[in-house]
Design brief:
Chain lengths: ~180, ~400, ~80
Amino acid sequence: MRLIKAVHIEHSSLLVDGKQVYTHTDNTAFLKGAYTFLEMNYIKFFKMDAPCKLATLASTCLDQNTPDIDFSGDKTAVLLATKSGCIESDIKHVESYRDPDQFFPSPAVFVYTLPNIMVGEICIKHKITGESACYMMENYDLSMMTSLANDLFAREKYRYCVLGWVDSSKDGQEAHLALYEKEIE
Amino acid sequence: MEAKVVEGLSELQTSIVADCIISPIGVNTQETVRSCFDGLSGIKILDDERYDQKTTLSSFDQNRFEEDISPNLSITHTRAERLAIEAIRKMLACQEDLDLEKTGLVISTTKGNVDLLENNPLRLDLSRVYLHAFAKTIAESIGVRSTPVVISNACISGVSAIVMGRKLIRLGQFESVIVCGVDVLSDFIISGFHAFKAISPKPCRPYDADRDGISLGEGCGAILLRKGSHEHVSLKKSVRVLGGSSTNDANHISGPSRDGSGLALAVSKALESAELTSDDIDYISAHGTATRYNDDMESKAFTISGLYNTPLNSLKGYFGHTLGAAGVIESILGYNQMSAKKILPTHGLENIGTEKPIKALSRSLELEWSKYFLKTISGFGGFNGVAVFEIK
Amino acid sequence: MEELKGKLKEEIIEILNLEGMSPEDIGNDQTLFGPELGLDSIDALELIVLLEKNYGLKLKSAEQGKEVFKSIDSMAQFIEANK
């Protein structure tokens, strides 16, 4: 498979194909700053939890400045891996019901307590309806993820694959997303 | 034609050789299947004053759980871990020749050990909340050395895990793969589904005109996949996973697509991967959560797929919605029904009330032909999953 | 009543994360679930929690929610009538 574009978000910096395009000194302001920088104009963004924000920021970058490439539809797969998943939303949800006198579980928090929601958010943003999956792993297993993508290219009618790692926890936020295309022989 | 011949080579096949379901209505597959055919349901009604409405769920009797489910691990392991370990151990009891060195493990769960965040009476290491650590604990207890693959695709996880297990064998990574779907109930899940106003105050009634929400459930299903053509140890038949898919609605993170196109796409991709058409399918073990929108969505999807006349049922009335375990438990039930040539009624269904007419069974049905069936499932994140099975 | 409506707008903007909106942007009789605010079914459920948490009011059903959450006017009326 052929790499079309790679996006990295770490240490509050956004890199496209290795070049830094945006950075911010403040961690919390970074996500909103990057949203503005990318001119996303996507109001749902502000309802998302951090991993979903990271995932959609990165996927938006994959989609920009590539006029010849349309990865919407069922020819595209989205395969993501994460360690922390939605742990921050999990903790927030637990806090909303643990005290019996302040028992107000929030549907808007609960909906983000599934790690695969970030895959769903990417699919919604880019209208991708193909293979979608979320794997939980301690460290990014590049060889497994690549072999899964290669298998989809080889055995099924896939043309593109958004492949990567998104992780958000108190220790930091990162996203490494790449867009691959099937190699045409 | 030639491709078909190659696919037919036995080493490219993936057979299901053993399994184990542990549910509130049975401590193993045989007992659970018998309970279903006897019309038993694990669903009970709870009145918890913290909620406006009653809660319906299928959960283990705590005393029986302590006695039956890995009692030797009661102070070192969580409920979810004990359940998974017990199911896998029972399943492997008659598999002496299995080489665990060459065996993979795929774990499917939505929330694993999340209850440790709300309550940790055993003072276990909190890092076991991470699903990779949860899976590693299970792998160590059963003696699998390889790093487990963990799939968390919300409610479709179990189906995704079976399809993944087949893929790992096909990619040549393992000779055998253990697939285990497990989820347990806690305030975390119950309070969330109440906040969604999704829980029915009465036992769920999939596809019924009067359905008004889900009943939750907990349980575990384990399956042993093997490369090549092998007989299932207790059914004495060949049970094969032929293919599968997981697709996305790209519509909404919590609501099912209104038109059913996402699930219909998953069905067509799965059939394509199995080299079958909808006419080949003798039965569908469908999702049927008993929410208004889900069941209507499925009726539209099956109409698009040309499966509106194919007998189907939902098993949620027996187990509740067992989340990450559902896909595995319901697939095992699927081929057990096929093997018996008898399809279970949808527990709780009296009068069909879906937007499009479908052949949801309210009474049991004897099958003349029972070779191929689909397990279909949908979940949060807009995910739809389908697996294709063959029994002969 | 006007004070209550202003307060409601602020609460809605905060709880539903309506980024970049200020209370003046929401009209008292504006349809809340129309295209302008982009609210969805999860937001409707979240408004049920808001009424419970901040005003001690419980809705009997989602159907009732449809009426109550029509606009800021209808929400304020419901709160006043059930105080």
